[in-house]
Write a structure and sequence with these properties.
By secondary structure, the chain is α/β, with parallel strands linked by helices. It has one domain: 3-Layer(aba) Sandwich (Rossmann fold), CATH 3.40.50.1820. The protein is built from nine helices and 15 strands. α3 crosses α6. The longest helix is centred in the N-terminal third of the chain and has 13 residues. The radius of gyration is 18 Å and the shape is globular. This is Alpha/beta hydrolase. It comes from Solimonas terrae.
């Protein structure tokens, strides 16, 4: 398909929806087309050897973020708009328990009682039950493996985003035990998905940080008006690799995002990377890591405006400009 945003056209992109259960044993089946993984493979011309993994907000499906996914693909990125266990609203579920935030996000990301690598922490939530197969990381490696063995796609292109490793707790049918190749992966997400993206990037081995992290209206985890403790914990992915955007007035959906950006990786560690600039005022020379979107409407409308599809099918120029900046700023991608 040929993608168009505003009056601009971009290169052709192949797209397909993938049933999660078809990618690996033990992965749950979905019963809606909208809830299937949405995969985009850019044309070879202008293709980047970089993959964007996108995680949507609470109760969402990949179809709710197809505009962002298609725009990222139009820039040359491979894109996995992932369906994952996101039925619980993390903020509501864990609002009175700091440990709940850590364990719920950890289990969703890596699986219940699963250590990502030998010697690393594992997580066990009393609020949810996500086994190793259905964790975010397992779904990522199994989906990549599925694509790397799909004769209708560029199999070598997808294979580069997996790293075989006998120590991995995540098994695939075609590539065996494997990890995502984080050196080639941008992990991004909105709302709950943004919190999970940050959590994963922070809890990888120090030797394999994520290439880039892009957070939309996230994370918002807070206890007593302060950042949840996992946010201020050490991060395997350096703060300089984190980028983000929120809207001007997201109310309770995003009231702690600015504070959490400042504290990601340690209290106050965000520092200069957390300087926020209103989208209409920023320039490339500023190289800020944090944008604030001019937005209107209810707090939920503003919260969704940073990444979710516009209900009227519009592609606001300021939002597209921000997406491009957050994915490419500093020239590394």
């Amino acid at each position: 398909m040929l993608l168009g945003f505003g009056n601009r056209a971009f290169a052709a992109v192949d797209s397909l929806y993938v049933q999660p259960a078809d990618t690996g044993a033990g992965i749950s089946r979905v019963y809606s087309q909208n809830a299937k993984h949405y995969v985009l493979q850019p044309d070879k011309a202008g293709r980047k050897n970089v993959l964007v993994i996108f995680l949507g907000g609470s109760g969402s499906t990949p179809s709710d973020y197809s505009t962002f996914a298609e725009y990222a693909a139009s820039l040359g990125y491979g894109v996995l708009d992932l369906q994952y266990p996101n039925g619980l609203a993390v903020g509501t579920t864990c609002m009175l328990s700091d440990a709940c935030f850590t364990n719920l996000r950890g289990e969703t990301s890596f699986g219940a009682r699963v250590a990502y690598a030998p010697g690393m922490a594992s997580f066990n939530s009393t609020a949810t039950l996500v086994d190793a197969d259905n964790s975010i990381v397992s779904r990522v490696v199994n989906l990549i493996d599925y694509l790397a063995h799909n004769a209708s796609l560029d199999r070598a292109y997808w294979a580069q985003f997996l790293t075989a490793n006998a120590n991995s707790p995540y098994s695939t049918s075609g590539s065996g035990k494997a990890y995502p190749n984080w050196s080639k992966i941008v992990i991004a997400g909105h709302s709950q998905g943004g919190g999970d993206a940050a959590f994963i990037a922070m809890h990888l081995p120090a030797s394999t940080p994520a290439r880039r992290v892009v957070l939309f209206s996230a994370p918002n985890d807070s206890i007593g008006g302060g950042s949840a403790s996992w946010i201020a914990g050490p991060s395997a992915t350096p703060p300089a690799k984190f980028w983000g955007m929120h809207a001007q007035d997201e109310g309770t959906y995003g009231q702690y995002v600015s504070l959490n950006w400042l504290n990601l990786g340690g209290l106050g560690v965000g520092g200069p990377n957390s300087l926020e600039i209103l989208l209409g005022d920023f320039g490339i020379a500023a190289l800020t890591h944090r944008l604030v979107l001019n937005s209107a409407g209810s707090s939920l409308t503003q919260h969704d405006s940073t990444a979710a599809n516009d209900p009227y099918g519009r592609y606001p120029e300021d939002r597209v400009k921000a997406w491009a900046y957050l994915l490419t700023a500093n020239g590394s991608d």
